[in-house]
TrEMBL record:
Its cofactor is FAD. PANTHER family: GLUTAMATE SYNTHASE 1 [NADH], CHLOROPLASTIC-LIKE. Residues 3-159 form the FAD/NAD(P)-binding domain. The lineage of its organism: Bacteria, Bacillati, Actinomycetota, Actinomycetes, Pseudonocardiales. Its EC number is 1.18.1.2. It comes from Amycolatopsis acididurans. It catalyses: 2 reduced [2Fe-2S]-[ferredoxin] + NADP(+) + H(+) = 2 oxidized [2Fe-2S]-[ferredoxin] + NADPH. This is ferredoxin--NADP(+) reductase.
């Protein structure tokens, strides 16, 4: 049997694992720094996107294959090094994503009250050690992609998230201090945004909400008009905003305003963000500013990194001898979850073509034990899963996520039921 290590148990790492299992003589050890599998499906996809989250069933099937070993709560660079993996495995696949925020690069960016999308998404998705982020009535979101829409929608849903798996703490904050106004600032024109039509149309389903768009900000260039003729996505996007721009306000208790061609030039305030100053001088009030302007990869010790593109350089997924990359760490942060499947297949094709026959049994557990790492196994995850479902059932919810790292590790390493009370 030849053993391959996959670092990252998100969709990319698991799609790579699925592709590796096509070879009967391969065994896969999957590592993740969180005690739980599924990466961005658990901690990135918005809690109300239940249909997208249902991909977990496919991912679960691969991870429960007897040829796969999950080791959660293991961080590369802390609990083990790339050299450790190199020593023990015939090949290593990095599927570590793009967890770092892009920076706005404007004055005031480091004031309290400005957070990156990742910080806010971590909070509402219950990622362990995420900060407290959404005590705000007026929120400004900078960015024009689907993550900006997720954030606007989730904050405006507030207490309407009880049917999801968000933590009790998140529900409590959004119920007690509901967000009333979200303004999305887009630096380009409407045709250039990255919002996808399905995600825009979802906003129509939110109750008690006025969607506000100034028709004067929707002007199209010649080029935009030509693109509307040839690109259905661009046309649908423009049409959605046109429709909203003609709707009168109803006086609904909550509003979602989109502003176009409005670049933020500075975040201002005394001790914390109070306003966003736009090019042209206008000042937009805000209790919280969220920049949803994309992500970057994270440099890993011993792994090449392209600081300009924010990802690991590679040729069709090959990084160096025995080292491979897949997913956002390979392509950068773009595409939907399914995009990572073809990406993983490309990487694994190259890996399998290079793979030597290597019958050694990896002794990585000795290294982890020497570090005192409390490894959460697949059985451990199943215990966490059961604990979250039981916690949810106490309040007639399908699941309530557990966000406390110590508690997750305790349950995942055998301390289960005591935590349920
Ligand atoms: P994205 O789609 O790349 O959008 C980032 C946006 O930020 C762009 O519109 C960009 O505008 C803007 N931006 C960049 N730098 C800026 C700056 N300094 N100031 C103002 N705006 C700036 O990224 P994302 O929203 O993080 O999404 C990442 C990926 O996940 C995407 O492929 C997305 O579709 C996917 N996703 C999908 C779903 C879903 O399917 N439901 C949900 C969430 C995310 P410019 O064009 O002006 O550069």
């Amino acid at each position: 049997m030849t053993h391959v290590a996959v670092v990252g148990a998100g969709p990319s790492g698991i799609f790579a694992t699925t592709a590796l299992l096509k070879r009967d003589d391969v065994r896969v050890d999957v590592f993740d720094r969180t005690p739980t599998p599924f990466g961005l499906v658990r901690y990135g996809v918005a809690p109300d996107h239940l249909k997208i989250k249902s991909v977990v069933r496919t991912l679960h099937k691969t991870m429960s294959d007897p040829r796969v070993t999950f080791r959660g709560n293991v961080t590369l660079g802390r609990d083990l090094t790339l050299d450790d993996l190199d020593r023990e495995y015939a090949a290593v696949v990095l599927a570590t994503g793009a967890p770092r925020p892009r920076r706005l690069g404007i004055p005031g960016e480091d004031l309290p009250g400005h957070v990156s999308a990742g910080t806010l998404v971590d909070w509402y998705n219950g990622r362990p050690a995420a900060g407290q982020a959404a005590q705000a009535r007026r929120v400004v979101v900078i960015g024009a992609g689907n993550v900006a829409l997720d954030i606007a929608r989730v904050l405006l849903r507030g207490g309407g998230l009880a049917h999801t798996d968000v933590t009790d703490a998140v529900l409590h904050v959004l119920n007690r201090n509901p967000v009333r106004e979200v303004r999305v600032l887009v630096r380009g024109g409407v045709a250039d945004t990255k919002f996808t039509p399905a995600e825009l149309l979802e906003l129509d389903k939110l109750a008690d909400l006025d969607i506000v768009v100034d028709p004067g900000e929707l002007t199209l260039t010649e080029d935009d008009r030509a693109r509307c003729e040839t690109d259905r996505t661009v046309a649908a996007r423009v049409e959605a905003f046109r429709r909203w721009s003609t709707r009168p306000r109803t006086g609904a208790p909550r509003s979602l305003t989109f502003r176009f061609r409005q670049a933020a030039e500075e975040l201002t305030g005394t001790g914390r963000v109070e306003q966003v100053r736009l090019r042209g001088g206008e000042r937009v009030p805000a209790d919280l500013v969220v920049s949803a302007i994309g992500y970057r990869g994270e440099p890993l010790a011993g792994v090449p990194f392209d600081p300009r593109l924010g990802r690991i350089p590679h040729v069709r997924g090959r990084v160096g001898p025995g080292l491979y990359v897949t997913g956002w760490a390979k392509r950068g942060p773009s595409g939907v979850i399914g995009t990572n499947k073809a990406c993983a297949i490309e990487t694994v094709e190259g890996l399998l073509a290079d793979l030597p026959v290597d019958d050694r049994e990896p002794g990585i557990d000795a290294t982890l034990a020497a570090h005192g790492t409390r490894v959460v196994t697949w059985r451990g995850w199943l215990a966490i899963d059961a604990a979250e479902i039981a916690l949810g059932a106490q309040n007639d919810r399908t699941r309530t996520k557990i966000a406390d790292l110590a508690r997750l590790v305790e349950i995942g390493t055998g301390g289960g039921p005591t935590w349920l009370t």
